[in-house]
Design a protein that fits this description.
Order of helices and strands: EEEHEEHEHHHEHEHEEHHHEHEEHE
Largest sheet: 6 strands, mixed
Number of helices: 12
Helix content: 25-40%
Shape: elongated
Distance between the termini: 46 Å
Strand content: 25-35%
Mean pLDDT: 89
Structural class: alpha/beta
Length: about 350
Amino acid sequence: MIEFRNISKTFKIGNREVNAVKNVSLSIQQGEIFGIIGFSGAGKSTLLRLVNLLETPTNGEIEVQGINIGSLSQKDVRKLRSRIGMIFQNFNLFASRTVAGNVAYPLKLAGWSKKEIDKRVSELLSFVGLTDKAKDYPEQLSGGQKQRVGIARALATSPDILICDEATSALDPDTTSEILRLLKKVNKELGITILLITHEMHVIQEICDKVAVMENGEVIETDSVFNVFTNPQHLTTQRFIQSVQQDRPSTSLLREWRRKGGKHLYRVIFKGEVASDPVLSRVTRKFDVDVNIVYGSVRELQEKLYGNLLVSFEGQEENISSVLLALQQDVTVEEVNVNEG
């Protein structure tokens, strides 16, 4: 659906050049929800603005639905933008227009008749759950309702792609979850490809199929959400993962564990079907070793189970070594430095 090939974007600020995007190559497939995450200044927003030519790349090529958008005429650029909906962090609604008026606006620009507009607006407000708010003005709405209006407006011209620019950053956690559920509905029921940027890893975890991590204008890691969460390669990615995945106990808990005689702590990572299999108890029982689960959890990622446990073992050293060797046939095992912190 979208292909970035060696894309770079440089801005000139006074006598200084700023490389906002550096040699980025990404493929977003039709029907995917693709997330781009990074801290402020990573280049996420600039990359998004290149898709509909709100910014033009300095180098490289972008294809949208197989068309090289760098070769488009102004008329064709307008057609391209009609196929790409956008929703924003601050909603960008017209304060002087009603909810229905905001949703109708792009249809009026496209030359639809009043009858067609009224029908389409009614359909969209029903889809986003705001039928009863049609005559209200934005100032009468909550943040979540405003974003629902923004989504309805973005869907008005039946786009193939929906771009979300920090769409939940201004919302509380409960409202964020509601909006993410609505975006999933947009993706599943309407078949719309979604490209979103965020600095919140829980958004990526909850909604995305794939993720690219950006830093200083570059993509430093990209993979399925499951693979990135369960095996992050880059330090920055690991920091993002740790922001939503408390995979290490507090210093005080570790101190108490050591006080009671704990010496060696191991992280045991279960993925997929193995997470529901009693591997740990079966192996420790076989070698007459006791296991103590110090910390961790088993949860669902992209409809797959993922377990991340911190454990210690009690028994003879040779038996513990046999347990570690046997476990590594089915799961990932690594020793944790308990002296950190």
